[in-house]
Design brief:
Layout (H helix, E strand, L loop, with lengths): L5 H4 L3 E5 L3 H12 L5 E5 L5 E2 L2 E2 L13 E4 L3 H14 L4 E3 L14 H12 L4 E2 L5 E4 L4 E3 L12 E6 L2 H8 L7 E6 L8 H8 L5 E8 L5 H14 L3 E5 L13 H6 L3 H10 L3 E2 L2 H14 L7 E5 L2 H10 L12 H11 L9 E2 L8 H9 L8 E5 L11 H14 L3 E5 L7 H9 L3 E4 L1 H11 L20 E2 L2 H9 L8 E5 H9 L6 E5 L11 E5 L4 H8 L3 E6 L6 E10 L3 E8 L4 H4 L2 E5 L4 H9 L4 H5 L9 H17 L4 E11 L4 E3 L2 E5 L1
Helix pairs in contact: 3-4, 6-7, 10-16, 12-13, 13-14, 18-19
């Protein structure tokens, strides 16, 4: 990362430029957080702001400040940034709006943002159109509004591209210790990935949460993921929005199936960053990661005093990828000794209320649901909003489980409001994670089990060359065959006479296709199983000036789609899925980014609904997986060698047999 953000984010001196209510709030909020450094207001006319003596100009400051909040209009902001950069200031928060975010209303906004970046030079700036940051570890903040952050000794860092979401997240009452809150604004100069990478250098940061609207420089995100994994600090993301695909979806299936969000998901998967879709899930995941770090797997155990809760969590876990392992004999013996013969032993477990109020007996029973085969144990407890006194035994029992077993243990409420903040803080202080809401707890557990190492190979980045050319099927097949893709023997012919002659050089039966049609099957221009004496009549019936005649592939186990589209925001998106004429009806696909390794390709194929067909379904032969992977790698090889010009490439279908994988249709669009 090129910028040193340490002075800005951990300042020993701050300056506040401007005299409005926003600037006064920055000073007042700093004092409320117990900031021990220097605070220097700057204003040409005022003499006192929030009880501090005022400097008339930036040049009058006793020294270059570490961090500056600039709360003046956009034109004056540019001038102030230039002065600060020349002074050697540590960095600045540019609060003013009216830059690139206002491009739709103001033609000059992009120019002003470029001027701001030029004025900053090597001095880091946050924004513009940015609230700034809160450093709850050192009590340092440049923040012009209310917030709910409290001083902490360690905690998570949260970065958002929305100042309003930043404010709302600081107001959480979930017991989550927030060490840093950073609103990134327009990111005109300093990107979200750069800021996050800088925060990884603070050993008090336990996890990083990223609210992402767009990625920007992919290489910066790859560097961030690698650094985070090396430091052992997990990243999680709440990705919103959709990137606009550069290619139209009218020619190929791949573009429409990949969708605008497939590239974003594939990039996060590649970076090893789990993705959440809701703010409560996002916060609960950060809390779980703060307490225990990434989970080794998705095996969970649940214990509650209600059969209804046991059934509910079992049903809610369906399709989450989480698993309730069957109780081992050791666990059953332990539980039987703790609970007696009246309780049916299962996972999830309803232990009734026989041991309620006896915290030692509760702890013994709950401990029976922990072990090496369990990655996280849930004890479902709902604290009443009227008088929770009688539930203190549950808090103490959970703390004893953690103390005696060292297991990852969670108190989980069915509804978020049924776990008080003071109880959450007491549990966390004792090493027990408080998770608020069953749905949120399951989402957090799943995400925490998905943190992984980032891919070693960098993403293949496309150019922005305009796509203007579509190769014929025969041309596309030949190009891909040169990279190792297996295709049928084929000939191109004009008219029935040439087709009949060409057929004599091929082995029957044949497939005959019309050339020049985007979707041949919709025009009845694909004929299969044609015999030599039927060639002429078939060609005349198809009716296109040119046809492709090729040897028919038999013994097909499954048909696959293998497609790659250029996504300017994320790279080249490789889509694998069920192929053939029903591709868009089935919509059975998964996406990766190019280049993908053999293991990634196999794992992606295993996720498809048609995976059982590839493996050999109900006595039918299995497909040759090595041949399929080789076919995908051939397509990738073509993509990486032609990244400057390629728009998209599609194989549909790739016919998979027990001993080969053959591309019987191909499309390439390029510059």
């Amino acid at each position: 990362m090129s910028k040193n953000l340490t002075r800005l984010l951990r300042p020993k001196s701050i300056a506040v430029v401007g005299g409005g209510a926003w600037c006064q709030q920055v000073i007042l909020q700093s004092e409320r957080m117990g900031y021990a450094g220097q605070i220097w207001p700057v204003h040409p006319k005022a003499t006192d702001i929030a009880g501090h003596s005022v400097y008339g100009h930036l040049e009058d400051l006793p020294q270059a400040p570490d961090a500056v909040f600039i709360g003046i209009n956009r034109h004056a902001t540019i001038e102030a940034v230039e002065i600060l950069a020349c002074m050697g200031a540590g960095g600045a928060v540019c609060f003013a709006s009216g830059f690139s975010e206002a491009a739709a209303e103001d033609d000059t906004s992009h120019s002003l943002q470029a001027q701001l970046v030029a004025a900053a030079g090597n001095m880091p700036i946050l924004g513009p159109n940015c609230y700034g940051f809160i450093n709850a570890l050192d009590g340092a903040l440049l923040w012009p509004d209310q917030h709910g952050t409290k001083p902490v000794d360690k905690g998570v860092a949260i970065l958002t591209q929305s100042s309003n979401i930043s404010i709302n997240l600081t107001m959480q009452k979930r017991g989550l210790p927030i060490a840093y809150m950073v609103a990134c604004g327009n990111m005109a100069q300093t990107s979200q990935a750069e800021i996050a990478a800088s925060l990884l250098d603070d050993p008090r940061v336990t996890a990083v949460g990223l609210h992402i609207e767009g990625f920007g420089n992919i290489r910066e995100w790859e560097a961030l993921a690698a650094k985070a994994y090396q430091r052992g600090i997990p990243l999680v993301a709440l990705k919103v929005g959709a990137s606009e695909q550069a290619q139209a979806a009218t020619v190929s299936h791949t573009a429409s199936l990949a969708g605008s969000d497939a590239g974003a998901q594939a990039l996060l998967d590649r970076l090893g960053i789990p993705r959440l879709s809701a703010l409560p899930d996002f916060l609960e995941t950060l809390k779980l990661l703060h307490c225990y770090g990434p989970l080794p797997g998705g095996n969970i155990a649940s214990i509650s005093c209600s059969g209804g809760e046991a059934s509910l969590i079992a049903d809610m876990s369906v399709d989450t990828g989480l698993c309730f392992p069957t109780l081992t004999e050791d666990k059953k013996s332990h539980l039987r000794a703790a609970l007696g013969p009246m309780v049916a032993l299962n996972n999830p477990l309803d232990y009734h209320t026989y041991v309620w109020r006896d915290e030692d007996a509760m702890a013994r029973a709950w401990s029976g649901m922990t072990g090496d085969d369990i990655d996280l144990t849930f004890s479902i407890v709902d604290y009443p909003t009227t008088d929770p006194t009688d539930w203190a035994c549950a808090t103490r029992a959970a703390l004893k489980v953690r103390q005696k077993t060292g297991a990852r243990f969670a108190i989980v409420s069915t509804l978020p409001e049924l776990l008080p903040e003071d109880v959450s803080q007491e549990l966390m202080a004792g090493g027990v994670v408080p998770l608020m809401g069953l749905a949120e707890a399951l989402a957090a557990t799943r995400a925490a089990s998905q943190v992984s190492a980032p891919a070693f190979a960098p993403v293949c980045l496309p150019s922005d060359a305009e796509v203007t050319q579509t190769l014929t099927e025969a041309e596309a097949k030949q190009v891909l065959a040169d990279y190792g893709l297996r295709v049928p023997q084929n000939r191109t012919a004009q008219g029935a006479g040439q087709a009949a002659v060409a057929a004599q050089t091929l082995e029957a039966p044949f497939a005959i296709k019309g050339v020049g049609l985007a979707h041949k099957s919709e025009h009845n221009a694909v004929r299969l199983g044609v015999m030599p004496d039927e060639v002429s009549a078939t060609v005349e019936d198809i009716g296109t000036p040119e046809v492709l005649i090729e040897e028919l592939i038999t013994g097909t186990v499954a048909e696959l789609l293998v497609g790659v589209v250029r996504d300017p925001a994320h790279g080249f998106v490789l889509t694998l899925g069920a192929g053939g004429v029903l591709t868009e009806v089935l919509r059975d696909t998964t996406s990766l980014l190019v280049p993908a390794q053999d293991t990634d390709i196999r794992a992606a194929l295993d996720k498809l609904k048609i995976a059982p067909l590839l493996a050999g379904y109900r006595g039918h032969p299995a497909a040759d997986m090595d041949a399929i992977v080789s076919a995908v790698q051939a397509v990738q090889a073509y993509v990486t060698q032609n990244a400057e010009t390629l728009g998209e490439v599609e194989i549909n279908p790739l016919l998979c047999t027990p001993d080969k994988a053959v591309a019987v249709d191909a499309l390439i669009r390029k510059a």
